Amino acid sequence: MLRVAVAGSLKPVWPALMASFPAPVETRSGPAGLLREEIEAGLVCDLFVSASEEHPQRLRQAGQALATLPFATNTLCLTVRSDRLQAGDDWFTLLTRDRLRIATSTPGDDPGGDYAQQLFSRMGKAGEAVRQRARARVGGRHSPPIPPGRLAAEWLILEDRADLFIGYASYRAALRRIAGLTVMAIPPAFNPVARYCCAILTPEAQPLAGFLLTDWAQARLREAGFGGAPQAHSPA
């Protein structure tokens, strides 16, 4: 049986992918930064599937991975409590409204938090003020667990822990079906692209990594709100 550590943002689509892979797979999911630390500390694993290239590349540079393989992309979106909206609001006016509570994933532990920080940097001076107001509420080693069956944005906002959440755009369709929430797009000029990447830790994992690039798997990822495989970067 293949042992795989998978970024939590892939949970909505991962079971369907693995149901069509011709070998049994045991999956452990969580924030990619924390999974990488577990692998570095000795977690037995054949394939590590991350929401960023940084963590797989660190394992490769340390000699713990045979290769890395990018296979999908994602972006960010903004989810806000609908009754906080004012006429003419967009993502920028919401983020820069001082009285709104902003939540993100935890930078360092969870790539979603790192991408939110990149968004703030792309916003220039206004983004620095937003960065100071934003709070990491999920995806960290000390974060409270998200209740089963709930999405991070839904739970944080509807439980009054935040007014808006910056998270992955792959959740847009699911979030738009939840009463009381509104999802806002973030323009490409400001929106960082998340590059999902595998670290192949054992030779046995190579078929599974290649499976993620098949036309069938790529179609399932697109149906789940992800973008297609990016061009591979040259190893550092």
UniProtKB/TrEMBL annotation:
It comes from Pantoea deleyi. InterPro entries: ModA/WtpA (IPR050682). It holds the Pfam family SBP_bac_11. This is Molybdenum ABC transporter substrate-binding protein. GO terms for biological process: molybdate ion transport. GO terms for molecular function: molybdate ion binding.
